Amino acid sequence: MRNAVLGHRISDLYHPAILLRNSIDDEIQVTEECVLKFFQLAMACCSPSPSIRPNIKQVIRKLEEIIH
Fold this sequence. Notes:
The protein has helices spanning about 1-10, 15-25, 30-45, 55-65. The chain is built from four helices and no strands. By secondary structure, it is an all-alpha fold. It starts with a helix and ends with a helix. InterPro entries: Ser/Thr_kinase-like (IPR052451).
């Protein structure tokens, strides 16, 4: 449910020009799906429960997965 709400409101969390500007740059394609995954990772990092929060190695791995 939380992912559905976040997905519905994702456009409220960033400026659409970010996607347009990055669509011109061939190095990294930033899609709305990428933005959603970045926010999901950020939410996991802010979890009040230490067992849910990823460690730095997991964060780096996830960031690399998102941009590739």
